[in-house]
Amino acid sequence: MRNKVKLGILVVLAAILVGIFLFTQLGNFPGYVLPKRSIKILAIVLTGASIAFSTVVFQTITNNKILTPSIIGLDSLYMLIQTFLIIIFGATSTVVMNKNINFLLCVGCMVLFASFLYKFLFKREGQNIYFLLLVGLVMGTLFQSFSSFMQVIIDPNDFMIIQDRMFASFNNINTDLLTLSIILVILVFIYFMRFAKYLDVLSLGREEAINLGVDYDYVVKRLLIIVAVLISISTALIGPITFLGLLVANVSYQFLKTYRHSYLIAGSVFISIIALVGGLLIVERVFTFSTTLSVIINFVGGVYFIYLLLKESKA
């Protein structure tokens, strides 16, 4: 089956699930329910697309299919920045209460960290997957530990504000940031188009890409900034979802079986939308909220992550 046909199937399946979510079980007040669901589905689509997009790009520049921005601790860093801002400026300050200013400040900090990460980790030669994975896990644990430490010493009322932003919640989406997030995603996509042509070559590895004429340092640094911005958007809207990117990116590799990133990125985005909307339908309509989608995703993703590690160790 050709990849264009496979992508078409994914698009149709995603559209059907979105349609079922929007237009079934509207009850007696469709005029109230439908706008609420439309905003929710827009945020979910934006989050799923950001996570899938950033994961495929991140795996290409790190040249492995196990590492993701979440596993290496980028979403933990976002929560650390939130906690740090509340401690420094207070929960009632404009920096914290104005969600747009708070969001832009966090995105700026994430971009600075991406530059730091590139300089001290990716620019060094001779790093293998296990070193990157080890450093990522250490950084993620370090960020979470710092966040926990600071949350213990702050005022309980301030802690409640942090707690609202800590847990992935598909029923309490931060819709105030939706407009700004859409604008940022569009700007990021326009900026990304300058570097999209290099991804297929970057997947060959650092030395091969340099030999083929790619300005490796320049391109990878800017792609890392794109990844940092997309992770900020997804974390701000719904919260950290550690293993979604790992799942959808690897399913995309297996389903499309191609090296061309034009197909891989599009495929992973639609698989992510199918996973989130389909999972949300099951949680809401089948399990009637007896569990949460983030728990299911992290459980399935965690098992799949262990499978990939065992598979890699036997290779």
UniProtKB/TrEMBL annotation:
Compartments annotated for it: namely: Cell membrane
- The yes or no answer to whether the keyword Iron is present is no
Which spans are transmembrane here? Answer: 6-29, 41-61, 76-96, 103-122, 128-154, 175-193, 223-251, 263-283, 289-310
**Topological type in the membrane:** Multi-pass membrane protein
Q: List UniProt keywords, sorted A-Z.
A: Cell membrane, Membrane, Transmembrane, Transmembrane helix, Transport
CDD domains, A to Z: TM_ABC_iron-siderophores_like
Q: Name one Pfam family in it.
A: FecCD
**InterPro entries tied to this protein:** ABC_BtuC-like, ABC_transptr_permease_BtuC
Keyword Acyltransferase recorded? no
Q: What is its main location?
A: membrane
Q: PANTHER family given for it?
A: FERRIC ENTEROBACTIN TRANSPORT SYSTEM PERMEASE PROTEIN (PTHR30472), PETROBACTIN IMPORT SYSTEM PERMEASE PROTEIN YCLO (PTHR30472:SF19)
Recorded family membership? Belongs to the binding-protein-dependent transport system permease family. FecCD subfamily.
What name has this protein been given in UniProt? Answer: Iron chelate uptake ABC transporter family permease subunit
Q: List the source organism.
A: Heyndrickxia vini
